[in-house]
Write a structure and sequence with these properties.
single chain; 332 residues; mainly alpha; MetI-like fold; globular; disordered N terminus; Sugar ABC transporter permease; cell membrane; transmembrane; transmembrane helix
Length: 332
């Protein structure tokens, strides 16, 4: 008898994938109809409104201000539109004005005092929030958010009433405490007093954002680092210098740069509260530019002052970022 050997049927080969088919055939992957071989114009269509809005709201005013600063542009030219180019004459006039340089010094002083107070107070507030319980943390954060959400004009009006010479709460409290010299004291008639009130207003409006941002950064510090530092016997200030600050330094520097920009270009609070007075005691560069443009109808000098403000602020930020990048390279 012949034994019949049973054979195993061959396994079916797997169907070639689309990648194998394309590799074998040397053809390109199928594209959706109407694609035209690329992404098409739809991404550009979708971002076009944002780009056009940015160009209209930011780039065009900047270019227009540069052009006006190079022209003889007064009230007559504003109405008739026959301005002629004068080159850098407006900048020579501006830089040769002693009052302008006094305003520049006051602007840097105002910015430095504000930024130092904002960063110190916001850091202390953020550290305090981190150590509070849930109820206290919620209450403080809610108060900060409400303060931050208050409109600038409303906050400025409140400060005007607080320091009003006859009906202000500050004068009433100081008089009741025995400081009779503050009865009917005109805060806004004295330059140093008006300057200090504006500093307090700007700091009060800026601390909430900085404190909330820094508190968010503090929550990213690992708890194990704090525990190790305490086991090594490190004090609170040493823990902040060696553990906390190195971790939150990028956010700290970001907040610092934003505060430099915001305080350097502060305008609304000063214009509403003192209009740059008394005298020039509270006049900084943005206020000086508006005063020059509106009071004297010298829109060319006002635009030149605005351009100098942009250049000075950009120079401060460039120096700051260079120092920041140098420190990051040293730590890397």
């Amino acid at each position: 008898m012949t034994a019949v050997r049973e054979q195993t049927p061959p396994r079916p080969r797997p169907a070639p994938t689309s990648r194998r088919l394309r590799r074998a055939a040397g053809s390109a992957p199928p594209r959706p109809p109407g694609d035209g071989g690329g992404r098409g114009i739809w991404p550009y269509v979708l971002i076009a409104p944002a780009v056009l809005g940015t160009l209209y709201l930011l780039v065009y005013p900047l270019v227009r201000a540069v052009v006006i600063s190079l022209q003889d542009f007064g009230l007559r030219q504003l109405i008739l539109g026959d301005a002629r180019f004068v080159g850098l004459d407006n900048y020579r006039t501006l830089l040769g004005d002693g009052r302008f340089w006094e305003v520049v010094r006051r602007t840097f002083l105002f910015m430095a005092v504000d930024v130092v107070l904002i960063m110190v107070l916001s850091t202390l507030v953020a550290l305090m929030i981190e150590r509070l319980g849930r109820f206290g943390r919620t209450a403080v954060l809610s108060a900060l958010v409400l303060t931050w959400a208050m409109p600038v004009i409303a906050a400025t009006t409140v400060f005007q009433w607080l320091f009003h010479s006859e009906f202000g709460i500050v004068n009433a409290v100081l008089t009741d405490l025995g400081f009779s010299s503050f009865e009917r004291y005109a805060w806004f008639a004295h330059g140093p007093a008006a300057f200090a009130i504006l500093v307090a207003l700007v700091v009060w409006q800026s601390v909430p954002f900085a404190a909330i941002t820094l508190y968010s950064a503090l929550t990213t510090v690992p708890v194990e680092l704090y525990e190790s530092a305490r086991l090594d016997g490190a004090s609170g200030p040493r823990i902040f210098r060696s553990v906390t600050f190195p971790v939150v330094r990028p956010i700290f520097l970001l907040v610092l740069s934003l505060e430099v920009i915001w305080t350097f270009k502060a305008f609304v609070q000063i214009w509403v509260m003192t209009n740059g007075g008394p005298g020039d005691a509270t006049t900084i560069l943005p206020v000086y530019a508006v005063q020059t443009a509106l009071s004297s109808q010298r829109y060319d000098l006002g635009s030149a002052a605005s351009m100098v403000t942009v250049v000075l602020m950009s120079g401060v930020l460039v120096l700051y970022f260079r120092q920041m990048f140098r420190q990051e390279d040293e730590l890397a």
